[in-house]
Design goal:
There is one protein chain. The chain has about 130 residues and is mainly alpha-helical. The protein is built from 5 helices and no strands. It is elongated and about 65 Å long.
Protein backbone atom coordinates (compact mmCIF):
# COMPACT_ATOMS: atom_id res chain seq x y z
CA UNK A 1 0.00 0.00 0.00
CA UNK A 2 3.05 2.25 0.12
CA UNK A 3 2.64 3.29 -3.50
CA UNK A 4 -0.84 4.79 -2.92
CA UNK A 5 -1.13 8.36 -1.65
CA UNK A 6 -3.93 10.47 -0.21
CA UNK A 7 -7.53 9.29 -0.60
CA UNK A 8 -6.68 6.15 -2.65
CA UNK A 9 -4.33 5.07 0.14
CA UNK A 10 -7.10 5.39 2.73
CA UNK A 11 -9.51 3.44 0.50
CA UNK A 12 -6.89 0.71 0.00
CA UNK A 13 -6.23 0.55 3.74
CA UNK A 14 -9.97 0.32 4.52
CA UNK A 15 -10.40 -2.43 1.90
CA UNK A 16 -7.46 -4.34 3.35
CA UNK A 17 -8.86 -4.09 6.89
CA UNK A 18 -12.31 -5.24 5.70
CA UNK A 19 -10.79 -8.16 3.76
CA UNK A 20 -8.67 -9.21 6.71
CA UNK A 21 -11.72 -9.12 9.03
CA UNK A 22 -13.79 -11.21 6.58
CA UNK A 23 -11.02 -13.80 6.18
CA UNK A 24 -10.65 -14.04 9.96
CA UNK A 25 -14.42 -14.36 10.40
CA UNK A 26 -14.70 -17.07 7.78
CA UNK A 27 -11.64 -19.18 8.66
CA UNK A 28 -11.41 -18.53 12.40
CA UNK A 29 -15.01 -18.11 13.57
CA UNK A 30 -14.20 -18.91 17.21
CA UNK A 31 -11.57 -16.19 17.53
CA UNK A 32 -12.62 -13.01 19.32
CA UNK A 33 -12.97 -9.91 17.18
CA UNK A 34 -12.72 -6.27 18.11
CA UNK A 35 -15.89 -4.27 18.37
CA UNK A 36 -16.76 -0.64 18.80
CA UNK A 37 -16.33 0.44 22.42
CA UNK A 38 -19.47 0.29 24.55
CA UNK A 39 -18.47 3.32 26.62
CA UNK A 40 -19.43 6.64 25.12
CA UNK A 41 -16.65 9.20 25.06
CA UNK A 42 -17.44 12.22 27.18
CA UNK A 43 -15.98 15.69 27.06
CA UNK A 44 -14.12 17.27 29.94
CA UNK A 45 -17.25 19.32 30.74
CA UNK A 46 -19.22 16.08 31.19
CA UNK A 47 -16.97 15.24 34.16
CA UNK A 48 -17.43 18.57 35.93
CA UNK A 49 -19.55 17.87 38.97
CA UNK A 50 -20.23 21.17 40.68
CA UNK A 51 -20.54 20.22 44.34
CA UNK A 52 -19.50 16.61 43.79
CA UNK A 53 -16.03 15.14 44.14
CA UNK A 54 -14.45 13.39 41.16
CA UNK A 55 -15.37 9.94 42.47
CA UNK A 56 -19.06 10.88 42.55
CA UNK A 57 -18.89 12.41 39.08
CA UNK A 58 -17.34 9.23 37.70
CA UNK A 59 -20.00 7.06 39.36
CA UNK A 60 -22.72 9.19 37.75
CA UNK A 61 -20.94 9.29 34.38
CA UNK A 62 -20.83 5.51 34.18
CA UNK A 63 -24.27 4.92 35.73
CA UNK A 64 -22.92 3.26 38.87
CA UNK A 65 -24.65 5.32 41.55
CA UNK A 66 -27.16 2.50 42.21
CA UNK A 67 -24.36 0.26 43.54
CA UNK A 68 -24.77 0.53 47.34
CA UNK A 69 -21.11 -0.26 48.03
CA UNK A 70 -19.87 2.39 45.63
CA UNK A 71 -22.38 4.91 47.01
CA UNK A 72 -21.05 4.37 50.54
CA UNK A 73 -17.47 4.65 49.26
CA UNK A 74 -18.48 7.89 47.53
CA UNK A 75 -19.78 9.28 50.84
CA UNK A 76 -16.49 8.30 52.48
CA UNK A 77 -14.40 9.88 49.73
CA UNK A 78 -16.56 13.02 49.83
CA UNK A 79 -16.08 13.37 53.57
CA UNK A 80 -12.31 12.87 53.36
CA UNK A 81 -12.03 15.30 50.44
CA UNK A 82 -14.45 18.08 51.38
CA UNK A 83 -15.90 17.36 54.81
CA UNK A 84 -19.57 17.50 55.65
CA UNK A 85 -21.49 14.63 57.22
CA UNK A 86 -19.19 12.40 59.24
CA UNK A 87 -18.63 8.84 58.02
CA UNK A 88 -17.78 6.22 60.66
CA UNK A 89 -14.96 4.62 58.64
CA UNK A 90 -13.28 7.92 57.71
CA UNK A 91 -10.70 8.09 60.52
CA UNK A 92 -9.62 4.49 59.98
CA UNK A 93 -9.27 4.84 56.22
CA UNK A 94 -7.44 8.14 56.62
CA UNK A 95 -4.96 6.47 59.00
CA UNK A 96 -4.44 3.49 56.68
CA UNK A 97 -3.87 5.78 53.67
CA UNK A 98 -1.44 7.95 55.66
CA UNK A 99 0.55 4.87 56.61
CA UNK A 100 0.56 3.64 53.02
CA UNK A 101 1.80 7.03 51.79
CA UNK A 102 4.76 6.72 54.17
CA UNK A 103 5.44 3.07 53.27
CA UNK A 104 5.10 3.32 49.49
CA UNK A 105 7.97 4.74 47.45
CA UNK A 106 5.81 6.09 44.60
CA UNK A 107 2.24 6.53 43.38
CA UNK A 108 2.20 3.17 41.56
CA UNK A 109 3.13 1.34 44.76
CA UNK A 110 0.58 3.39 46.71
CA UNK A 111 -2.13 2.50 44.19
CA UNK A 112 -1.20 -1.19 44.34
CA UNK A 113 -1.25 -1.19 48.15
CA UNK A 114 -4.45 0.86 48.55
CA UNK A 115 -6.52 -1.00 45.95
CA UNK A 116 -7.14 -4.12 48.08
CA UNK A 117 -8.17 -1.90 51.00
CA UNK A 118 -10.75 -0.12 48.85
CA UNK A 119 -11.85 -3.44 47.34
CA UNK A 120 -12.65 -4.93 50.74
CA UNK A 121 -14.39 -1.73 51.84
CA UNK A 122 -16.53 -1.96 48.70
CA UNK A 123 -17.27 -5.61 49.47
CA UNK A 124 -18.23 -4.80 53.05
CA UNK A 125 -20.35 -1.81 52.00
CA UNK A 126 -22.07 -4.02 49.41
CA UNK A 127 -22.96 -6.71 51.96
CA UNK A 128 -26.18 -6.18 53.92
CA UNK A 129 -25.67 -5.95 57.68
CA UNK A 130 -26.54 -9.20 59.42
Amino acid sequence: MGFFTGHPREEARASYVALKAEVNRRFSPQEPATTEPAITRLTRADYQGGERVTFEVLLASFGLQADPGLSRLAALVYYLDIGGLSVAEAAGLEAVLAGLRVACPDENALFAAASPVLDVLHLRFSTPDT
